[in-house]
Amino acid sequence: MGAPALTDDKAPRPPGDLGGLEGIIGFHIRLAHGAVYRHFTETFADLDLTQKQVSALWLVSEFPGISQIELGRRLRMDRATTMTIVNRLQARAFMRRERSTSDARKQALYLTDGGVEALAKARRCIAQHEAWLKARFTAGEAEKLVEMLARIHE
Amino acid sequence: MGAPALTDDKAPRPPGDLGGLEGIIGFHIRLAHGAVYRHFTETFADLDLTQKQVSALWLVSEFPGISQIELGRRLRMDRATTMTIVNRLQARAFMRRERSTSDARKQALYLTDGGVEALAKARRCIAQHEAWLKARFTAGEAEKLVEMLARIHE
DNA sequence: GCGGAATTGTATGCTCTACTAACGATTAGG
DNA sequence: CCTAATCGTTAGTAGAGCATACAATTCCGC
After folding, report:
1. Which of residues 26-65 of A touch B (CB under 8 A)?
2. What is the value of pTM for the model shown?
3. pLDDT at A126 over 50
4. What are A109's strand-pairing partners?
């Protein structure tokens, strides 16, 4: 008991009040992720790329010839999810698949010229997006935040 | 130039290496959110409740009679998304809708007895989930993390 | 070397979340 | 009183994640 009724409009608690949810770390991660996701989507509206697609382009650029399973491992995606990402990027001619010469089970992934170009544009958008994010923190805080988040995803 | 080939299996970089992605705050928030989401889903497998559903139950419990639009505002969901959440919870008889007496446009949301019970169980699962999360941090760190995440979602 | 187990890619189908656009009902403001 | 704004609702679209099943390939024990 004690929770005040809101049937009338004399709301006694401010609109941002989240009650007991306020102290839950997981809840804040969820909201923060949502906010970042929304801003990302706006920033990348012109490029029409999602976070996952950009991450995949980026990783394939840094690890040319990487296999799908390895790409998925680093981005914490399962095989099926990785497939749909790569399918879309291949359909837009940003990426191509080749059978690996060392292991015929694997596909080796490479960026096409169009993919390199798209990634270059994406990097500029990411810089902008990150600037929006980092404006809230000092350099030390940003570093600490990244380090703590890394502890969560191992 | 510079990026080592992975066509062969002499991978010169460790499997956790994310290259330039490492420094991107948004990327770490994404991965952390994924990890939290996965653990949450495991923890709540028996209850068959999602993060959003639990958050909604919790908020309606703290603000009985809250309108859908207000619920959505606090959880950063639009009206359509809020609808589907409330629909599911109502279908499982955890929540009921009533027309607001003060504003006939609004629905006033209340937990049913089943909803109260489900929330009680959910709270125990959340405690477990949060303990898993908090094990990585000191009390001070956890507080700082929450505060920094709050800066992101305002 | 051979046969069974594990790995990788692929296809299919389901779910949750989120968004847009439209519409009707109700309320609020000039 | 009439118009604009708000709220709920429905329908459609899309990304992301997961499970399952299957084929091809490789690996390992014998």
Report:
1. 26-37, 40, 51, 55, 58-59, 61-65
2. 0.87
3. yes
4. A66, A97
